Amino acid sequence: MQVDIRRFPFSRRGAYLSITLAAEGNRLLFRNCRRLFGEERFMEAAFLDSQGRELPFAFTATPSCLDIAVEGGRARLAVGRLQEIHGHAEGLRVRLVPRGGWSWQAAGNDWRNHVITNHNHVTDAVVHRGAIDGRTTVELVGGYHKQTGAEYLLSPDADGRLSFSVICSPREVLPDVREADFDRSVEEARQDFADWAATLPPVPDRYAEAARLLWYNLWSSIVSAGGNFRYDAMLMSKASMCAVWSWDHCFNALALMLSGRTREALEQFFLLFEMQSPEGKLPDFINTEIDWRAAVKPPVHGWCFGLLMDRSDLPAPVLEKAYGHLAAWTDWHFTYRDTDGDGIPEYIMGNDSGWDNATLFDAGTNMETPDLPAYLFLQMRTLGRIARALGREGDATAWRDRSEALLRTFLDHSWHGGVFVARKSGSHAYDPHPESLLSCMPIVAGDSLPADLVDALVRRIETGFVTPHGVATESPASRRYLSDGYWRGPVWAPSTLLVVDGLVRSGRPELARRIALAFCDTVAASGAYENFDALTGRGLCDMGYTWTSSAALYLMAVHAGLPGKNGPPEGTGP
Asked: Residue 572: what pLDDT?
């Protein structure tokens, strides 16, 4: 299988490093995935001729090895298990350019770079065969020496061969690397991916090649447990968004459960809950830091866990664990996010909803948008289902009664003029003509809604938001629609999957399948981007995005087959 590093970062399961193509296409970027944004590009690599000129190169990649071809030479790169990149080259020199920090020669063929800003790391460039020559530029500024530039020139030996390693660590250690680590890393990654690929969920033949690439993306986006990650964690991307947000992980759990990887699926689901506060709040995201700022993410977790229950007979300890977490997460919303006490929780800001800049939030902060009570309704239904499975009939009845009361309050509060509206908490002012798909997300409640409301929602979705590439997050007819507007127009994976699932629950399988096929075709053609232009299908923002891969795989396997085949199990979800 070939991997296009213009669309998917080159990495492997467990590793914190990845390789992508620089924007100008003439250099490689070595990325450190331990922190979000700040240190994601810690070094650039270029390939030189004997006169020191940078050479254009062609590349091919498999899950285990990245091959570089230049005029008169070639190079091969492999990613080690945790924090190493190993390279072999013939007939060329390599220039490594560290980004920021302070460089010095540590010993022999080892040059070291220490970045001591808020994204501290130490990088060693070690040559096993050949030679390394480091060059730095230092200026005296205000009485302090400041390094304004650095580069390492790696040259081959007399036989024209070069072997090297780049090691990136949170602390300064003596690197224990050898020339043989290249072959070992290639073989380990090859075998590990082969084992992973054997569990790829079955999909229609038209998506077989695309599904394998998406499955590679999930495998290669996993980092090893440690620090805030209680389990091996699937990052959203190893290109830029190097973290796990507290709703993204649900979609990755669904794809893993679909493949029969129950343990890994549950680990991804519980990953954020391991950081849950005593009050029940989930952090916005985690990586080497925990983001406890005001933003949270929408409570799609009960919806997700219901689907996980559909796919596996989960043991009582798992159900007990999920019950405690979901109950606390549900209660937190009514305790801390219902500031006017009307029984309808709100999002403090757009980021709370996961739809950061959706047009429903143009009206301001503290918005009671209609998706939130719909998710909480489903979460209560799942809690009742778990309680029944655990033999707690009294709790199951209590959650049923509470969910039905919420649904009645929600419909009276948010359904006006034939649409769901977002009200300002306190004043309850609202825009009677919302044009964001967020106003249609109560479709997730499916046939729990009155039939006339379902009919109206389906008409709005079909006529106002369905495009050849999925469902637009803002109606293309809206004056506020932006083709590259983040949540103000583009097609996103989570909203598409939630809408498709809601349409199936609402008895609209044909429309659901149409949307699923449109989105899957787009991902197969463009790659697993963070989002897509709703009218052209062009990939936008970050690449190699895992929830896009997971949602597409789920849609391919469950909703994109022929009617009656590959469909969801009977009585799915909450």
From this structure: 61
